[in-house]
Amino acid sequence: MISLVTGAGSGIGAATAQVLAARGDRVVCVDRDEAAARETATGVGGLPVTADVTDPAAVEAAVEATVRAFGRVDAVACCAGVEVNEAAQRLDPRVFDRVLAVNVTGSFLVAAAAARRMIAQGGGRVVLVGSANSVVALPGQAAYAVSKGGVLMLGRALAVDWAPYGITVNVVGPGVTDTPMSAGSLGDPERRARLLDGVPLGRPARPAEIAEVIAFLASPAASYVTGAFLPVDGGWLARG
Ligand code: NAI
């Protein structure tokens, strides 16, 4: 398969590129960080593309580059995302806008640019990355929780709209995962203990454990799964 992964320069996106490449996909590694995209692409024998997912022209160019290089695009995994770390910024409207722009609009732009090609091809797979916080709001997370709730509904809405074209759309909901995004929280013993306290499996996910689920949803084996929200959270949501 020909797969495009955003946020491929780090964490869950990098792991997804690795899992997809290991199963034989040709992988296009998209990130706004040029060096990071190149590093992942080099590691997986893929094509690096520098693009900010909030820029429609850059997203279109990334999908164009995919089709130019490989002739088609079978799957996209929208892993690019941001969280707000500074408490002082959490009430800043510009920060709120940026989190929604990257997490929600960015996912939409990538999915839509790919879907235009997938419709012409007769089908495809779209996997969005929400969060366990798509359905639970934690203190201090208004922008992030709203964005991830938006990703969940985006996945459902697109699944309904694109089913007639043979395109499946699903949302993965990672729990706390050991990536650069969560390094600050997991590196602080008190915050780490608080975060993991409600996780029945008692540890953060490894990025590859999220990537394996994304890869399944981006495979032919998931042909009858669409509009699903699949938590990969060590049981956190089940415990309530
Ligand atoms: P990360 O920070 O390790 O990697 C994110 C990547 O996305 C980086 O390479 C970054 O350069 C890229 N990126 C950010 N904004 C971009 C933009 N506008 N355009 C293109 N690339 C951009 O983060 P991680 O942990 O791998 O997160 C991946 C996804 O998983 C995010 O959507 C995040 O919200 C979600 N997630 C992560 C969890 C965690 O505990 N790490 C938990 C739940 C969800």
TrEMBL record:
A GO molecular function held by the record: oxidoreductase activity, acting on the CH-OH group of donors, NAD or NADP as acceptor
The entry's keywords: Oxidoreductase
Q: Which GO terms describe its biological process?
A: fatty acid biosynthetic process
Similarity comment: Belongs to the short-chain dehydrogenases/reductases (SDR) family.
Q: Domain of life here?
A: Bacteria
Q: Name one Pfam family in it.
A: adh_short_C2
Q: Which residues are in the Ketoreductase domain?
A: 4-210
**Which Gene3D superfamilies does the record match to this protein?**
NAD(P)-binding Rossmann-like Domain
Q: Is Repeat one of the keywords UniProt gives this record? A: no
According to UniProt, the name of this protein is: Oxidoreductase
